[in-house]
Amino acid sequence: MHVDVNGARLHVREAGPASDNVLLLVHGFPLHSGMWAPQLDDPPPGWRVLAPDIRGFGDSGDVGGAVLSMDVCARDLATMLQQLGVTQAVVCGLSMGGYIAFSMLRRHAPLIRGLVLCDTRAEQDSQDARTARHTLAERVLRDGIEPLVDSMLPRMLAPRNRDRMVALRIRDIMQSVTAPAAAAALLGMAERVDNTDLLRNITIPTQVVVGSDDAITPVGPARLMSRAIPGSYMDVIPDSGHLPNVEEPEIFNAVLRRFLSAL
Ligand code: MLT
Asked: How much distance in Å is there from the Cα of 42 to the middle of ligand 1?
């Protein structure tokens, strides 16, 4: 389905029954909601699952600006939930999706019933990382998405998964991302605020998940993030890199279900 929000038309994948138990899946970069196929194909029993493409990505039209801030994405998703009559959802964000989940927590907290922070971080970019994102954004606008795919794909997956079908599926998703959307999201991630101050004040149930071989958001910092969030759960998904939900979907889904069933 499509939902009109704040001048954008978001494409939203849906699974599960009509239910007040709503799970919102927020994709990473440079990806779209298709990355959640293993969760949409096998939704947690009794849960309505919503997986939108953020503006400019997947089938959600044009990005509509040179910078796509995490706050704009968060506002779009909050509006989307309101348009669909959803009063509260568990928000599960992977990497950039986690940055968006933090922004939702800052600005739209009443909408959030629980949090699943996958392969993400609370810190903002260092000055070097910011500069690198700007350089990469310029390169993507000049040369297209392919160099970004070639450099990012091997870092996304654990070494043992780089020759599996999953790598082809992720490559396909990455190649569908347009250069303007990728560049705008890079600049938006570069300007995101630091969320570490938020962690100790999180009072809703929270699950931290990370792939054992995640080279982008590694286990050590994920563990520290979990320790900083009172009462949060922490799971390391074995044999996985940055995308444990597609690399080890059965284990990931079991962790997700355990968390949801305890709410
Ligand atoms: C992602 O997977 O969303 C990105 O790796 C996030 C980032 O570049 O910081």
From this structure: 25
- Would the pTM count as exceeding 0.85? yes
Cβ–ligand 1 distance for 189 under 6 Å, the answer yes
Is any atom of ligand 1 closer than 6 Å to the C-beta of 244? Answer: no
pLDDT digits (tens, 9 = 90+) for 31-52: 999 999 999 999 999 999 999 9
Q: Is 263 helix (H, G, I), strand (E, B) or coil?
A: coil
Does residue 157's CB lie within 6 angstroms of at least one atom of ligand 1? no
CA distances from 19 to 3, 16, 33, 39, 173 (A): 18, 8, 21, 17, 29
3-state SS track over 220-259: HHHHHHHHHCCCCEEEEECCCCCCHHHHCHHHHHHHHHHH
C-beta 70 within 6 A of ligand 1: no
Provide CB contacts within 8 A for 205, sequence distance 6+. Answer: 113, 114, 115, 231, 232, 259, 262, 263
